[in-house]
């Protein structure tokens, strides 16, 4: 236990309510607003910026429990009071920050980076938040709380992460999924890990309403990102990226958003580093939405003066097919504070951007495609300049979205022209003919 440092839930609306982190509470009991985890900053300031940097650097890559995790190596900034024994970690985080050398040069950029958050246990950045939530549930159960199971509504990746972590810790899991709206890989993950999988004839927002009903009596714990514990884990990517650049702050970060927890988390990671003096400069945060599920983009066009939920349409970027995002207020705060931009991308744009990046050795999920398409648009309009150090956050592993990849290269995706299609050559096993085809293809594809 690090009894020196402490944190609690606090109402984001500023009505003054606070609750201990061990309490089962998701929204403010007085005013109904979202909560956030609030740290005792004076205590944290007792260590200097240099000391924090050195501490975090010294834990990188260690197998000293629990610091081998990219989340828990920043434990004091995440959930300082939790017992190490109750931490449920699969050593998430510490994902590679890849220099997109060839893709960048196609766009005229030589300082473009991709943060590979999908290179993680369940194949998406959701692992970063789930380790924190499940660890807290585990601690509550050890302290005698009557929690029978954890539950979530999901567009796919949340349910995979929740089930993996809860099963690792021995906690029963219930997941609510919109029927026929997620990929096979996303469906098979919670099935394999033994969750109770409930497939509902509705969309994500409909699943969300059901899980909120089911978790009302507190014996089933709600694991959606309205639960601010997850944001505490996700915010460590901000710190990790800066650390990977030797504590230099990038100019611009682009991230795809649906429920808007992750953009909020990025903001809170940077806010904390600024407050504790680890960095001086603010990066610019850019949120990328799918045109078919773009409520925050529409609000951005009105200077965030108002926000209206939308009914999302079907998009290839299925994990961000959300019309009524739960973390909208936190997201707007982060975007205002970090000189934010919201831009959108259509189906054809996101699919082509992902396929073009794949040609340089990447394997991008459709959400990463949205972020890459937004990068291309903002370069074209001059809102991002080519010499900026830019990081695109890749939120999931492309292998989770093989239907998207196959559909692209077979040319069967709706509203997508597949300009970078690449199909296998089916032919007879005749060496002469094979050599001829190779010559022809080398000219065509590598010219
Ligand atoms: C959840 C998810 C997002 C969106 O994150 P939010 O916090 O909901 O905005 C983006 N990409 C992938 C792959 C996801 O799983």
How would you explain this protein's 3D organization?
By secondary structure, the chain is α/β, with parallel strands linked by helices. It has a domain of 207 residues: Rossmann fold, CATH 3.40.50.1100. It has 17 helices and 13 strands. The strands form 3 sheets. Strands 4-5-13-10-11-12 form a 6-stranded mixed beta sheet, sandwiched between helices. Helix 7 links the parallel strand 7 and strand 8. Helix 10 packs across helix 11. The longest helix is centred in the N-terminal third of the chain and has 17 residues. The chain is globular and about 70 Å long. The protein starts with 6 loop residues before the first strand and ends with a helix. The mean pLDDT is 96. Pyridoxal-5'-phosphate binds next to helix 11.
* Amount of beta strand: 5-15%
Alpha-beta classification: alpha/beta
Question: pLDDT under 50 segments (min length 5)?
Answer: none
Give helix % range. Answer: 25-40%
Number of helices: 17
Instruction: Give the terminus-to-terminus CA distance.
Output: 61 Å
- Give average pLDDT, whole number: 96
Give me the side-by-side strand order of the main sheet. Answer: 4-5-13-10-11-12
For the record, the CATH class of the domain at 97-123 and 231-410 is Alpha Beta
Short recap of the structure:
The protein has a domain at 97-123 and 231-410: 3-Layer(aba) Sandwich (Rossmann fold), CATH 3.40.50. It has a 6-stranded mixed β-sheet, with helices on both faces.
């Amino acid at each position: 236990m690090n009894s020196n440092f402490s944190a609690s839930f606090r109402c984001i609306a500023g009505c003054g309510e606070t609750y201990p982190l061990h309490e089962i509470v998701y929204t403010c009991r007085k005013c109904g607003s979202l909560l956030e985890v609030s740290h005792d900053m004076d205590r944290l300031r007792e260590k200097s910026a240099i000391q924090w940097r050195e501490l975090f650097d010294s834990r990188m890559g260690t197998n000293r429990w629990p610091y081998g995790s990219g989340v828990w190596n920043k434990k004091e900034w995440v959930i300082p009071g939790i017992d190490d024994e109750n931490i449920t970690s699969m050593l998430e985080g510490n994902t590679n920050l890849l220099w997109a050398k060839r893709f960048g040069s196609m766009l005229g950029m030589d300082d473009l980076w991709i943060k590979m958050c999908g290179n993680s246990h369940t194949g998406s950045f959701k692992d970063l938040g789930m380790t924190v939530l499940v660890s807290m549930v585990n601690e509550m159960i050890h302290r005698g709380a009557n929690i029978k199971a954890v539950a979530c509504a999901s567009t796919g990746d949340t349910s995979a992460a929740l089930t993996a972590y809860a099963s690792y810790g021995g906690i029963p899991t219930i997941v609510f999924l919109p029927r026929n709206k997620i990929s096979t890989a996303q469906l098979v993950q919670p099935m394999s890990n033994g969750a109770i999988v409930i497939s509902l004839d509705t969309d994500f927002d409909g699943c969300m309403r059901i899980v909120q009903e089911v978790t009302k009596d507190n014996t089933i714990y709600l694991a959606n990102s309205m639960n601010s514990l997850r944001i505490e884990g996700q915010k460590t990517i901000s710190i990790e990226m800066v650390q990977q650049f030797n504590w230099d702050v990038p100019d611009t970060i682009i991230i795809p958003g649906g429920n808007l927890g992750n953009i909020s988390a990025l903001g809170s990671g940077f806010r904390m580093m600024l407050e504790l003096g680890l960095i001086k400069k603010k990066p610019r945060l850019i949120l990328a939405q799918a045109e078919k599920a773009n409520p925050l983009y529409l609000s951005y066009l009105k200077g965030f003066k108002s926000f209206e939920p939308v009914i999302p349409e079907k998009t290839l970027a299925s994990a961000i097919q959300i019309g009524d995002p739960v973390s909208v207020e936190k997201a707007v705060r982060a975007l205002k504070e970090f000189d934010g931009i919201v831009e959108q991308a259509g189906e054809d744009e996101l699919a082509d951007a992902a396929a073009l990046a794949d040609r340089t050795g990447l394997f991008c999920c459709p959400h990463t495609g949205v972020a890459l398409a937004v990068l291309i648009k903002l370069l074209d309009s001059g809102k991002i300049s080519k010499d900026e150090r830019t990081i695109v956050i890749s939120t999931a592993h492309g292998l989770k979205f093989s239907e998207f990849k196959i559909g692209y290269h077979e040319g069967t995706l709706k509203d997508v022209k597949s300009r970078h299609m690449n199909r296998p050559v089916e032919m007879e096993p005749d060496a002469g003919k094979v050599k001829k085809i190779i010559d022809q293809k080398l000219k065509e594809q590598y010219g």
